[in-house]
């Protein structure tokens, strides 16, 4: 049966003699690399509070080793330790077998789970579980399933991601402003595996126990340049050619890379098109989950999307693609390319 939180799972692993008895098999279900790494680390720490011997933690792939081979390892006594953990990755390899082989694998796993090795914790890793298959139904009956995906309604997904980012900062010895956490989640598309090293970098910059601000994110995280693009696009939406050219000049003098700037603007134009395709009346929280953006940024995008016709956005996408091609072809006058682009994007 699934557990509600990772903390409950770790607590049970740390006290295997509790009311519910020891856990023989855990399933890590979900594609998020950061959450999976965190779960692995938590499982090992819970199983070996004083530190795990290297030989007591095994990692295998079900694409490279048969299920029979993995279960033989599970039934083999570990050396010089009373417990072992086996992480078996690529559960999908079993789901991809033909019907006969898959049923044989189910029977083999069922036989093991009826009488599991008491000294082994078997951890099966799956990007996703197909609830229709007999293999998944077996796991639901005989194992503890820990979901590694940020689930729930779109607005809840955003809040869950922000809590994870807050925990990342705390683990790195810092705190992070809510606006900075939202900006990180937005500009890195909510991908926790990409966010984690950026939080570590920001924490080191802020110093021990200090606070990570939105200004820190804008300064140190390259993808945060998208927010600069929002400012520029606000001028483009209003066809303010002079201010837009002056703003562009400031960006280039500040060392902004032309190709990166065009890429950020293209991303933003695509987001405006996505905003226009949302059902009427969609609030910023629901939209944030669909678009993988912070609610505040969605609010800005909704405002801009109302004043820029779709046809103009599509022409802008084409102009940005052509500018990107010119810049990447070795054009020796990137400033001229960008100034011409601004002229096109502010044309009537």
Distance between the termini: 61 Å
Overall form: elongated
Biggest pleated sheet: 5 strands, parallel
In the CATH scheme, the class of the largest domain would be: Alpha Beta
- Taking pLDDT < 50 over at least 5 consecutive residues as the criterion, the unreliable ranges are none
Order of helices and strands: HEHEHEHHEHEHEHHEHHHHHHHH
Number of helices: 17
- What is the CATH topology descriptor of the largest domain? Rossmann fold
What level of helicity do the residues show?
A: 55-70%
The side-by-side strand order for the widest beta sheet comes to: 2-3-4-1-5
- In total, the number of domains comes to 3
Residues in β-strands, percent:
5-15%
Please tell me the overall pLDDT. Answer: 84
CATH architecture of the largest domain: 3-Layer(aba) Sandwich
CATH superfamily membership of the largest domain, which one?
P-loop containing nucleotide triphosphate hydrolases
Calculate Rg over CA atoms. 25 Å
Please provide the count of β strands: 7
Q: What structural category arises from helix and sheet content?
A: alpha/beta
